Amino acid sequence: MDMMAVYQEGAYERLCRWVQAECRRLGDTDNPEVSELLRTAVRCLKERPVLFKYCAEEVANMRHNALFRRFISALTRGGPGGMPRPIEVHAHDPLRYVGDMLGWLHQALASERELVLALLDPDAVVDTGPTARRFSSKGLESDIGKNETDLTFVLDRIFEGVCRPFKVRVEQVLQLQPSIIISYKLSNTLEFYSYTISDLLGRETALCNTLWALKDASQKTFFDILKTQGEKLLWYPPLVAVDLSPPPAVREGVSVLLEIIETHDGMMVPASGKKSDFDPVISALLDPIIQVSYALHLMVFFPL
């Protein structure tokens, strides 16, 4: 019996090395297919949690490198034959540029999640819907023997590498101080994808932490622009027209306010999220207009 146990452990170790080699091969292709033989081998390795963990780490490392290469290629070279075009071609258009990067990451997450499920938990039911939370017991958090391995770690590791190049590019967009409308739409887009990707990947992961930090930075940029323009309006109040019509600066402020309200009403809301508090936005936009209008009223009807 002792010899049988030795042979069995040797077989498991050989199986583990074979699975690791197959996992390395998966890192060489963009859309790998998991063979039935590999799935069967992984099922067998679940009887040995330590060996299974080695294989899960191999998958994470290989797909981490492959995803990083794919993301940089999508940014700078585009698809085969130049189609689709490189994402950085649209760097002059902040909304499309950031939106294309977020869309690419979201699509890649769905693909990688499906791959990890098929490889490391082939008996699980794939749920790529927006309400899939972290990876529940019906998803990617499976009971592996006596030890439960959180497979969210695998996807967290896979997407860890794309965080920095994505963050650097979004920060460059924000540093250029886009218009008020563009800044507000950027903030809404980042918030939508922050919720959506957190539903799939888990809040406490590298990619989600990056997304939420960028959402906060974009909101700060938006309110900084509002504050600057509001202070400018108050410090340099416009002249009163002879016919008492609203000054151009006031009309422009009201026009921006109406467009912001329209954008807010039409913004996308993820299944797990809700529209952000709109009162601070209204106050930041409307208060300077009200204050300067009152000051102009005093100048006209109560001149010094």
Automatic annotation (TrEMBL):
Signal peptide residue numbers: none
From which organism does this entry originate? Camellia sinensis (Tea plant)
Which terms does the UniProt entry file under GO BP? Answer: intra-Golgi vesicle-mediated transport
Pfam families documented for this protein? COG6_C (PF20653)
Q: What are the residue boundaries of the Conserved Oligomeric Golgi complex subunit 6 C-terminal domain, all occurrences included?
A: 1-292
List the protein's name.
Conserved Oligomeric Golgi complex subunit 6 C-terminal domain-containing protein
Q: Which PANTHER family does this UniProt record tie to the protein? A: COMPONENT OF OLIGOMERIC GOLGI COMPLEX 6, CONSERVED OLIGOMERIC GOLGI COMPLEX SUBUNIT 6
Task: Write down any Gene Ontology CC term.
Answer: Golgi transport complex
